[in-house]
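We treat protein structure as text, and this decision shapes the records that our systems exchange. Because each token names a local backbone shape, the row as a whole describes the fold. For reference, a complete record is included directly beneath this paragraph.
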Amino acid sequence: MAKLAFYHANPSRSATIRWMLEEIGAPYDVHRINLRDGDAQKPEFLALNPMGKVPVIVHDGVAISEVAAIATYLADAFPEAKLAPPIGDPRRGPYLKWMFFGPSCLEPCILETAFPRKESPPRSAAGFGSVDLTLDVTDAAIAAGKPWLLGEQFTAADIIIGATVRWGTLFKMMPERPHFADYVKHIEARPAFKRALALDAQ
């Protein structure tokens, strides 16, 4: 039995963590959660995540939920994978910014586009500011990174942002922009991404 357990439902946001785990390369046990059958609402799962959501990992007996938190934890717990700048590295701040920009700005922005309200919230009330601003900032960062957000080094931030951009463009919830398309091509070429996709297709 691996020291790392992964509670996973496919399709769901936990596909991002499946990719992260494949990038790390450490052994992990998969516990499949059937959302339609209500597995995520059963007491044994709620004991791991009271929110009743996937993904969840358990590492050395500690349960961790929320995609960005899991990815941040795993990148630091497995430094040999080189998926995070170490503490003290000047790139650590921008790295962490993008780790949390994904779930706090980019994903809400995409959902705002996919499920528009009658009246958009005031810019000061929305954590992501505005849809156009969020997309423009993401586009500019991808364009400047070449090929990754931090330059030549692929990091967990590219997993968080990359998975979101791919999802948003795949389901036509984000505009088609050349930099987004190029970024997704780089993502889909990664062996770990291909392995994760193949495992979930089985």
The beta strands are 4-8, 29-32, 56-59, 62-65. The chain has eight helices and four strands.
